[in-house]
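ugh ok fine here u go
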Amino acid sequence: MFKGNLIKEFCELIGTAVLVFMAIGINAFSGGGVAPAEASVATGAVLMLIIYGVGTISGAHVNPAVTLGFLTSGRFPQGQFFRYVAAQVLGAIVAMILLFITVPGFDWVAAAPVMGSPVSFGLEVFTTGFLVFTIFSVATGDCRICPDARPLAGVIIGAAIAMLSFFAGSAQAGILNPVVPFIFAIAAGTWLELVKYLAAMAIGAVLATFVYQFTRYQPKLEVEVPTEEEQQA
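structure:
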């Protein structure tokens, strides 16, 4: 019964826990001495491995913004949406607890992302939307340029994560995953920042859905059937 009903949610929990633990831990364990480019590439590589590990089971969303995008596009049932998000949030909490245990001296307040300007908000909308659009393009079966890019989905999405987080990281954007500011809000009390990031990521995910569907829309071709007179002429 567990395997039939909860295995997907369990994979989302474990995948999110690993992603968050390693994405934040790379800086926590080094005392903040890791270069932004290195941290971005490492996060993308971790996500790539998670996708190949559990992607065929749960889809490896490991991100409520991605799950929201699939829900908005009609590719995901509403009931399962809430179960996925709950699993992802629990996974992030597990990662936070592991970081508290393994890096007790980690300064959560200093490391917490702070959205300090409208530019940061706009960049978070853009980068989250870009990520969701990319996932739709390579992880669904309706891309005409690459009709079946799914075997390479892990590589492409991991590269997108690395590029987007590095691109916007200096502006405190490119966080790309709501569970990250969520656990910082718990650990550092940055609840207002959580609201800002949640709003930006939700807007980005929904906009990406509409843009993707608009660009993939193809009007039905109208075939003119000749009349009997035209056929006899």
